[in-house]
Amino acid sequence: MIHDNHRLSSAPAATDRPFTGEGYLRSLQDDRCVYLNGERVEDVTEHPAFRQAARSVAVLYDALHDPAQQSVLTCPTDTGNGGFTHRSFLHCADAGQLIAQQKAIAAWSRLNYGWMGRTPDYKASFMNTLGINASYYGPFADNARDWYRCAQEQALFLSHAIANPPVDRAHPEQASDVYIHVDEEVDGGLIISGAKVVATSAALTQYAFVSHHAGITGINSKSVMFLVPMNTPGVKVICRSSYEWQSASTTTPFDAPLSSRFDENDAILVFDRVFVPWSAVLHYGHQGLSEHFATDSGILQGTCFQACIRFSVKLDFFVGLLTKVLHATSGDAFRGNQVLLGEVIALRHMFWSLANTMASEPDRWLDGAVLPNLHAALAYRAMSPDAYGRVKEIINKIVASALIYLPSSAKDFANPEIDAYLARYVRGSNGTGHRERIKLLKLLWDAVGTEFAGRHELYERNYAGNHEEIKLHLQLMAKQDGSLSVMTQMVERCLADYDEKGWINPVWRNSNEPVR
């Protein structure tokens, strides 16, 4: 069981209801250790580097309690507490439940236009496996069941840190002071030190999930997998620069409408002799469990499902915004631009089709449960990095310099002299006024041209791992599931129809055969 003193101190009193937005924000006011710009952040919910992103997450929690959205977003819990939760926190028994889960994930993603990837439903795609797959965790099976219940009932927000800092990939055995490791076993748990990256949104989550990604580090024969509250003594969150704070300091929401509120700050997660109780451990011992964790635990399909849906919503946003920008600049009158817009729409259709296939053609799993279709999940992993880069390339090509010759700030509109020039020289086409045109293009620039946009491209390109690994995995899985054999056998049947002398298959006639 998870001991009460290791639960969130600010958890809501009513355990049959997930957090509200206000309750979520209160849960972050817990004396966590977050560093930014050389200083410790006292309250992430009020600091200008995090407060808008925190409120963007709070919007998601409030939606769970909105009667107009509950039928899509929520379902009854299966823990016996009589409550409700976001659909992504439950495992699914059939395609119908997966389709309902898909709609819930998409509805949440539309609240941030696809620009927040590590929202609570992301890690829910792992937590929802812990109940039905508890035996996978061996002696920690009861812990898995308890975390399944706890996460579901409160709709917990977890961050995710599984990669080792790349200090020296050629000699990992020389990084024993860097990688996560157990300093000692003590009464009641483990003392853990080391670091993990990239802990996206760790400053705004309630717990962190920590595990190995792949490969044996060579430090020792044991690996560890655990969850830890973000306010645990010794846990340090060292954040990158905040695009939200930069936007708030130098511009207005008009100038940076995405980066000013949807910045999921990435961090280095440091453990300085952190006590992790046995109740928070999911694995400790033979490294093989963590090494094959992605494929054995069910997390691979779940995370790809959530990510593909979110990616598809983001492509919806790009198609809609690019369409409006081309209309405002008369770019839609050119055949070449129409062709390239059509290509973006085709990519949008392709990824929605993959998400639909994951839901409607699931793979059978354990005890009647299903997982999203693995073939579609692997196709998403392999194709989305290049697709995102292609969308950005198309936008740069057909919108071109219109993205850059924009006034420095919405404050220019308040100066009558500047505004008069802008009204004349930066007005749009098809009845689009200068302010509307500038507003559209600043939104697009924040999506493809700012530092925030650059981070998003890096995120999408590396979301599922190394660019080679994600494609090598396709071949490996095709061998394992027999689909590659089916395809090669088809070619072998074709080859068996003929040889160097002519047709072998009697269906076809050789040229020297008499006409009958």
UniProtKB/TrEMBL annotation:
Classification via InterPro entries: Acyl-CoA_Oxase/DH_mid-dom_sf (IPR046373), AcylCo_DH-like_C (IPR036250), AcylCoA_DH/oxidase_NM_dom_sf (IPR009100), HpaB/PvcC (IPR024677), HpaB/PvcC/4-BUDH (IPR004925), HpaB/PvcC/4-BUDH_C (IPR024719), HpaB/PvcC/4-BUDH_N (IPR024674)
Binding site for FAD: 160-162, 200
Top-tier EC class: oxidoreductase
Domain HpaB/PvcC/4-BUDH N-terminal residue range list: 20-282
UniProt-annotated stretches for the region Disordered: 1-21
Keyword 4Fe-4S: no
N-terminal signal peptide: none
Keywords (A to Z) from UniProt: FAD, Flavoprotein, Monooxygenase, Oxidoreductase
UniProt GO MF annotations: 4-hydroxyphenylacetate 3-monooxygenase activity; oxidoreductase activity, acting on the CH-CH group of donors
Ranges for domain HpaB/PvcC/4-BUDH C-terminal: 292-491
This enzyme's EC code(s): 1.14.14.9
UniProt name for this protein: 4-hydroxyphenylacetate 3-monooxygenase
Organism: Pseudomonas chlororaphis
